Amino acid sequence: MSENFNHAQIIKDPDDNYKILGTRPVRHDGVDKVTGRAIYGNDVQLQGLVEGAILRSPEAHARILSIDTSEAEAHPGVLAVTTSADFPDLGDKIANLGEGPVNLAHLAANCLAKDKVLYKGHAVAAVAAQNAHIAREALDLIKVEYEPLPIVTDVLEAMKDGAPLLHEGLLTNLVPGGEKAEAPSNISDHHHFKRGDTEAAFEAAHIVVEREFTTQTVHQGYIEPHVATAHWNQDGQLTVWASTQGSFSAREQTSEVLQIPISKVKVIPCEIGGGFGGKIPIYLEPVAAVLSRKCGRPVKIQMTRDGVFEGTGPTPASFMRIKLGVDEAGKMTAGEAWLAYDTGAFPGGVIGPGVMCVFSCYDIEHAHIDGYDVCVNKPWTKAYRAPGSTHVAYAVESVVDELAEKLEMDPIDLRLLNAAREGTKRVDGPVYPRIGLIETLEAAKNHDHYKSPLEGPNRGRGVAAGFWFNIGLKSAATAHVNADGTVTLLEGSTDIGGTRTSISMQLAETLGIAAEDINPKVADTDSVGYTDITGGSRVTFATGLAAVEVGKDIISQMKERAAKLWECEAADVEFSDGIFSQGDNSISFKELCAKLSRTGGLITARASVDPQGFTNGFGVHICDLEVDVETGKVQILRYTALQDAGKAIHPSYVEGQLQGGSVQGIGWALNEEYLFDEKGHMLNPTMLDYRMPTALDVPMIDTVIIEVPNPSHPFGVRGVGETPIVPPPGAIANAVKSATGIRMTELPMSPPRVHSAITEDGNGAS
Amino acid sequence: MGKKIHVSTTINGEAVEFLCEARQSLLEIIRDTLTLTGAKEGCNNGNCGACTVLMNGVPVDSCLVLAVEAEGAELETVESIANEEHLHPLQECFLEGAALQCGICTPGFLVSAKALLDGHPEPTEEEIRFELSGNLCRCTGYDKIVRAVQAASERMKEVK
Amino acid sequence: MAIVHVPPQMQKLTGGLTEVEAEGDSLRRLVSNLDTAYPGFKDRLIKDDLVAPGLAISIDNVVTSRGIFAEVLQDSVIHIIPAISGGR
Amino acid sequence: MRDFEYKAPATIDEAVTLLAERGSEARVLAGGTDIIVQLREGLRKADLVVDVKKIPELMSLAWRDDGGLDIGGAVPCHVLYNDAKVINAYPSITDSAKIIGGWQIQGRASLGGNLCNSSPAADSIPSLIVEGATCRIAGPGGERFVPVQEFCTAPGANVLTEGEMLVSLTLPPAGESSGSRYMRFIPRNEMDIAVTGTGAWLRLGEGGETVEEARLALSAVAPTPIVAGEAEAWLQGKPATEESFTEAGDIARKAASPISDMRGPADYRTHLVGVLVKRALNGALGRARGGDRNPVIPSGINLC
């Protein structure tokens, strides 16, 4: 059966002899998802449920002078109307919400604007009504008086003296957590790293390449709009059904915005229709909660698609200047980066990872990095798959390609010569543990794709590398052993791409049973221990580790039961391959399960972990494409994604991450961008005009998994999910260069941009 | 609220009657009134295909059909693809080939793919990609979806 | 003694030194000792018993999620880096 | 969206009576793929929606004795491109029908609806123009006929007056030695609005080496779809070669007066007119010489 599916090449660790890991069981939630029975956020149906809608600002920057909701409240069928006046005053409180600090006033003001709107589409008020049609009708009856203010949407413009200020009191953090600039500006943070003597190193370099790059705002593009349902009971208990990447995070954020104890909030995670970082922040939960408190009914709000584009957090536009110097042999000796990312309406964007990722693939002795986070009148930017890393990889990988050309060196050889490896010190300080960039570059060089000649006019090949940190964070799991030999596993990681199964497989491997004998459930915040978000490529690593710990606890408890049966010491019972044994006695896991209730009752085990040993992921992509020089349109012909993935627990889902990330990166590279008019209005907030790739736009995406195990995980798991979006824009830009001779320094490389570059260059047809 | 209109239709082989307002979409009615929540709302604008159902055998975006237009029609949703005992080969192949990650687009893809294979049992890769281009997926990069449709086409041929 | 790498913007506190040594078996003790030698560090690094917002501390190349209670070894290497806010 | 009344009359007379009575309050619903979106987004308003799909004339394909075809105003696209006779006679029309939205849109959307929506970027209008289509319009004053190229008057506006509706599109018999092709340029390969579109129709002279007659129509380069008359006239009698078609493209550019918008800058659109005219003429030539008339799947280079 599986031969039809053409699986990836896997370069295995020779010591690997797992029974369950590396197989491809059907996911536990699979049948529900192919029959339409799985319950996603918008599928929640409750007695008395009413529907909400959000009023959004038509202005990109304005003071709110007044809001009159009386007419809306009087509209037949309307049950409640709310504005930020119903939120508690949060002052300037910073809360540490598990994944990092959040300014609560900003979080709340993004859910419902307080005294200013900072972007077109900023939520201003909300209505609950008998149905969504009535709720939307009522939005038209809310009268908001705005005093328009000058706007700024371009990151460099926003940094200039005299630019319109979004936050009058914003002083740049010159040192994270410390010193601030004296005069207010739109720059919320300035990061700075320096190593060695960059000036002298550039002076001594054989070749120096310096280029400027720009990228535009792009959205995660999940197909399911944000949706939340809240029911505020008369006893003060708030229940939220959420489509979120982290139910505990959603609980914390909601309780902080509403200033109610977390014990009063239960978040029930629904199936989630994609997130990619965009469903970590909350938007609707506190709004639905307040509406529910006001009308006494459960309230569901689903965003409209334009609401998703205009009112949630895309990832930033950027300006980047990159300079790299090499010696005669091609060794990189000096690097300089100056980066400005727009953070959108509120401070706190993704420049942090940007400055740390910029030179992360290479060993560069002398380097100097500056990065700025800049507020502009656009939606508050948020994480999108390897946040901040794709931007810099596009820029740096383009410059590396140019260096290879000038050195007349194979672009993979140049990368191999300079690649980061175990012991390499990143410019921001940390030293790499065991990583697999070298192995991945070598696999790329030896791949049939790279070795096959590419023929035909206007065709080109490009390669690029990419990096992501991956994270650990906290995960918990509880397991109940059943008399029939199966195990019910409760865990708290919302499953976006098959993680129920990748976690269950690790428990199954530990217990020596089949993956199908584990029955995983994603539990609500009252039913499982604290678990951080599904994000950062952490779930298979950290929640998987919790499952392994649970498995060890089960084995140790079952050894005691076996010892009872055999009247021996538990310490003398051995466990291997699903069999408990002592001397001549032996019993299988399943058989022992049947005896549990008679030896002291069925077993429950639990584990809570906070692993520190997560480690990085590196990818190398190869892209062949053809440019229609008459129109500037780019067609991807062949694409291969290779990645150092640690142990691939369920290889199909690892391949899926590589393929999905690659295609998101292809979309970003070629056509995706927010287009704004001079008033700061997004022109293309639809899935028609925000052009994500369709099935017809991409070829099959070939994958190679290189299993360089993570020494800090019992099964060698590394994170996988984020790295694959990082290399594509660089690989495509390099392929466009090879096809046309033109180096594209702007994303997206959309047909008009490519055509105009070709025309200006004078090489192409007019 | 508007006056309700009575509509008689057939959904997944069963005669069904419902009341709706003229402005209500077929998607709203099948999800909220008939509680067949397999069809999903992704864009409510005809651009993503997550709400695809068959209307008289032809795939349509149910967000762009008024529920009143279903009078006398034969409708099929993702809930009808499997029979009582077995998944459809497409569903099996989507699962075995890991052709879904978050799964929100899956019902729409399955309905479109079923219509494709019903009318065209051995499509080329290009034809699959073309006919499924009205269905957006953001997770898979389409590779495994296309392969699952190819595998299902093979499997259905074997069954015959 | 653990080695603390000082980011450029904090080198004012160390009189320009890019790395300094400090004693302490937890981050809390280490920062406290560091503050004695170079006043100002504690304020910069710790707020309300937590690592200051926007900051992350890497101990032996792993960004710790255990805040001031993180274990520090005799020969640990500490880096002060930006937190990946929202960057997950 | 605001609620409205819904009627599904069974005859043209009934429909016209309803439309005349309710005037500007009423909107015709054919495939609904434009009007439902517009009502939902408040771009158009209606108190009455008149579903015309129960009227037999609007849902039929009728071949006339002279070999011509009447396409009912609400016949969905998929009916057209699944009909071998239509493909063979009017290939540019099935080219268009095959790429209006995705498959799900084509299950509902009709050429009549596409025409009455009167978008400057409509995919089917250039094809209808070059195939010589005429609109049969019913109204309170009886029937009238308007050539498609005179139907649209401005973006979103057309010659229909209150109470009038489009009944069908009347196509003349497809000529011998003729072929046609519709091509559009879009940044994706599917699911997109034309940055520029071109319909081309050719009839070859004896021997098949010269152009006896050419028709060219362009979309998204003016407030309405337009005819590139000067290029058409120039082509007459010219050798059917790439060089002629390139030249015709250059001449056709002069007819374009596009705006810059989010779908493309004006100068780029004008440039594309030349490229598309050349490519569409090449496609039409291939078909005039007996090549494959089936709609082309628009993936790969030069098939935009």
Features:
B: 160 residues; alpha+beta; Ubiquitin-like (UB roll); DNA polymerase, domain 1; 2 domains; 34% helix; globular; D: 304 residues; Uridine Diphospho-n-acetylenolpyruvylglucosamine Reductase, domain 3; Enolase-like, domain 1; five-stranded antiparallel β-sheet; four-stranded antiparallel β-sheet
Question: Can you walk through the features of this model?
Answer:
The complex is a heterotetramer of chains A (766), B (160), C (88) and D (304). In chain A, 27% of the residues lie in helices and 25% in strands. Chain A is an alpha+beta fold. In chain A, the strands form 7 sheets. Chain A has a 7-stranded mixed sheet, sandwiched between helices. Chain A has a 5-stranded mixed sheet with strand order 1-29-28-27-19, sandwiched between helices. A 5-stranded mixed sheet of chain A has the order 10-18-17-16-11, with helices on both faces. In chain A, a hairpin with a 2-residue loop joins strand 24 (579-582) and strand 25 (585-588). In chain A, helix 15 (499-511) packs parallel to helix 16 (539-566) and helix 18 (651-670) packs across helix 19. The longest helix of chain A has 28 residues, at 539-566. Chain A is globular and about 85 Å long. In chain B, a hairpin with a 2-residue loop joins strand 1 and strand 2 (14-20). With 304 residues, chain D is α+β, with helices and mostly antiparallel strands. Chain D has 2 domains: 5-171, Uridine Diphospho-n-acetylenolpyruvylglucosamine Reductase, domain 3, CATH 3.30.465; 178-288, CO dehydrogenase flavoprotein, C-terminal domain (Enolase-like, domain 1). Chain D contains 11 helices and 14 strands. Chain D has helices spanning 12-22, 35-40, 77-81, 84-89, 91-97, 103-106, 111-117, 124-130, 229-235, 242-253, 266-288, and strands at residues 5-7, 26-29, 48-51, 61-63, 69-72, 134-139, 142-147, 152-154, 157-158, 165-171, 178-185, 196-204, 211-219, 226-227. Chain D is globular and about 55 Å long. Chain D starts with a strand and ends in a 16-residue tail after the last helix.
Topology:
The complex is a heterotetramer of chains A (766), B (160), C (88) and D (304).
Chain A: E1 9-11, H1 30-35, E2 50-56, E3 62-68, H2 70-74, E4 78-83, E5 94-96, E6 101-103, H3 104-111, E7 116-117, E8 123-129, H4 132-139, E9 143-148, H5 155-159, E10 187-195, H6 198-204, E11 207-215, E12 227-232, E13 238-242, H7 247-258, E14 265-269, H8 285-295, E15 299-302, H9 305-311, E16 318-326, E17 332-344, H10 351-357, E18 366-375, H11 389-407, H12 411-418, H13 437-446, H14 448-451, E19 459-468, E20 475-481, E21 487-491, H15 499-511, E22 518-522, H16 539-566, E23 574-576, E24 579-582, E25 585-588, H17 589-595, E26 604-609, E27 617-628, E28 633-644, H18 651-670, E29 701-706, H19 728-740, H20 751-761
Parallel strand pairs in A: 1-29, 2-15, 13-14, 17-18, 21-22, 28-29
Antiparallel strand pairs in A: 2-8, 3-7, 3-9, 4-8, 5-6, 10-18, 11-16, 12-13, 12-15, 16-17, 19-27, 20-21, 20-26, 23-24, 24-25, 27-28
Helix pairs in contact in A: 10-11, 11-19, 12-13, 15-16, 18-19
Chain B: E1 5-11, E2 14-20, H1 26-33, E3 52-55, E4 58-61, E5 74-76, H2 89-96, H3 106-119, H4 125-131, H5 143-159
Chain C: E1 2-5, E2 19-22, H1 27-37, H2 41-45, E3 46-47, E4 50-51, E5 55-59, E6 62-63, E7 77-82
Parallel strand pairs in C: 1-7
Antiparallel strand pairs in C: 1-2, 3-4, 5-6, 5-7
